[in-house]
Amino acid sequence: MSGPKVVRIVTREERIATCQGLLARLEAALSEWERVGRRNETVSEEDIRNMRARYAKLNEALAADRFDEIEREGTREMQFVQDDQERRLAHAVEKRKRARLSKQRTKEVTAELQAALGRNRTQPAGGVTDAQRALAQKLKESEDAQSFDQWLSEHAPSDGLEQRFAELSVLLEDADVSQFESRLRAVQEEVSQARRELLEDSLTVDLTKAVRDARQRLGLLSRLRGLSAELRQIGSASAVRAADLLLHSSNADTAMLGALETDAVKTLAAERDAYAAHMRRQVVLKGLASLGYQVNEGLETAWVRAGYLVIERPSQPGYGVELGGTGEKGRIQARVVAFRAANAAADKTRDIDAEQLWCSDFAHLGQQLAATGTELILEKALPVGAVPLKTVSDAAASNIVESAPALRERTLPRS
Predict the structure, then answer these.
(1) CA dist., res. 109 & res. 115, Å (int)
(2) What is the structure's pLDDT at 394?
């Protein structure tokens, strides 16, 4: 099968870039996990060291070119970090909720005790009634877990409100929660039960919306930090600009953040595709040059501009190889072409010899690329002589290169 063929190329550099992007996103997630954990006192120094050690092992795998391992374990680690953060936040919410309810219970018991003392002002100094002793014991037990759980099951005052307050305090700074705290005090101080219930319902609705909005916003910010890290890893000027824009937009409204995320995803995909296509073209051209084909400076630019490229083999005059497609989707078409006038008679014997030589060259190209970690996968091929060779004039072939400026090398930093 040495006639026209379609090949798919996955370069080592492309795989490195993919893994670097994944690790950059994981690093951003770990930083977020650590920041949120420290703020809510849900992570210890040992937790942080253990999580960082897992991350270090993935970097060691990248240094050893264990790309499959990184893509598999890195994705799992991302999910683990996210799940672990949610688990720790849920624990923090429950802890804060119980603390708020415990404080409320203590306040109620204290008020009862003070009221009882006020009713017994005629009691001789130093004397304590049985009722006062009972209230004092009740206050003493206010921190007891079993007593507190029993009280919760019997009263559970404003449990829905306290749940929302606890969630919001875990997600936002104290200043952002204070406005709701003042509304809660107004609810508790309201004398009219009917109005108190109305105010409580309104506060619950607003708190629920605030929690939902906070989760949505923080999720967006987290994803934007990950995108920013990946863009910065690419290192191109446009990618760095996009990364900086994301980092400096944390105060934008949620709608704007959503639009930024959409644009960043597109930018990242375009940058990754452009780099991968560039490296595919590079490895093919370098490989063909090592096999004796005439590869000059500026050929890659010509290839991108024209959408195809014709390369001569000086040791085989009259024939060359045409490369079609520019590698954006990972695929390149390749076929032997003959340099002769369109109406010139074909020399079938020489045409077949040219295709057979290309077959040998293609096999050597695949071996060379494999030795450098690049996969050259044959997806489609026709037999020798299955279709007549395409004819290309010498002028048409040379004109592709004449006005093509050199394309600057694009590289991704290797961590």
Answers:
(1) 10
(2) 61
